Amino acid sequence: MRLVCAKLRFNTRSFSKTPIKMATKTVLILGSGPRIGEAVSEKFAAEGYKVAIVSRKGTDSVNEKGYLSLSADFANTDPSILASVFDKFKSEFSTAPSVVIYNAGSITPPPDAESALSIPSVSRHQTNFQPLVSAHKSPLHLNVLKKISPHLPLEAFLIHRNAKFVALQARVANDLNVNVVTPFIAAQEAIKGWETLPEESKKVFIYTGNICNVAVLPVPLLLNGGMGKAATAYWLGVADGAYTAKGYR
Known about the structure:
The chain is of the alpha/beta class. Helix content is about 30%, strand content about 15%.
């Protein structure tokens, strides 16, 4: 995957004898995996940015590299979750993040490798199910189900409250939440924060993309991810044009 970065715009001001306090350079990275996320955080830290990273394994503390580590589940589209992340960021750095990077992503391989539309979309009676969190709590026939769908991760399954039935999670909805809905909420929170920043601060939202928003690849494995990247590329393009006058990119 490649990192899609918008161009940064700089505002020029007339010379003044009054000392100008430089704005703190800050970046919030949503989705800090060991590859792109780690490389991006190190790059921004080297450029003098205060860095906060967010993942499901976040510790809600400052880590050994000096980054603020926060936790969040990007499949959960409750707006209060990301609102809390941005609040914690501001509490730590006394400012909103000027650069927000959404690097989280989710993809579910089709259970039938030859059928792109075999990815589960809706699980019936989900109110009677709960996430399957550990193998030792699983009914024995889960092994049979996983043989049918060997590529699906454990979290793709739901266990019935009586622990006798297992069903497939609604993975289409899950992946769209991570790839489309949650970054949309993140962009909304970013704009709220930018409205509090000095005019000269660079205000940029970056989303990790790939080729799927400009080319349709007939690869079943890429279906869920491609839908998400294409959808987000569209609303990002609209937002980029709509907020240009404010200097938001």
